[in-house]
Specification:
This protein is mostly helical. It has four helices and two strands, in the order E-E-H-H-H-H. The longest helix has 13 residues. It is globular and about 40 Å long.
Length: about 80
């Protein structure tokens, strides 16, 4: 759930409090993308193809910036190293 701060910026508390934010240098937009895809836990990324995850996200939201792909790759790598 997003809440507006007084400067007018939205804060995505659900994404900020998600397990994905435990991954070093994770982007909150990438965490939101995982949540929007129904992926709520890091372990759900094990064995997944980062390209397929990103393609699924792009189908749902075509405006997703391409630079988020590196965070998808990082998250899958992190999930597989635990």
């Amino acid at each position: 759930m997003s809440v507006r701060k007084k400067e007018g910026k939205k804060v995505d508390y659900a994404a900020l409090n998600s397990p994905f934010m435990h991954i070093p240098n994770m982007d909150v937009r990438a965490a939101r993308m995982f949540l929007d895809l129904g992926i709520g836990e890091i372990y759900q990324l094990k064995g997944r193809d980062p390209s397929a995850i990103f393609a699924e996200a792009k189908r749902k939201r075509p405006d997703i910036p391409p630079e988020l792909f590196k965070f998808v790759s990082k998250a899958v790598e992190f999930a597989e190293s635990e």
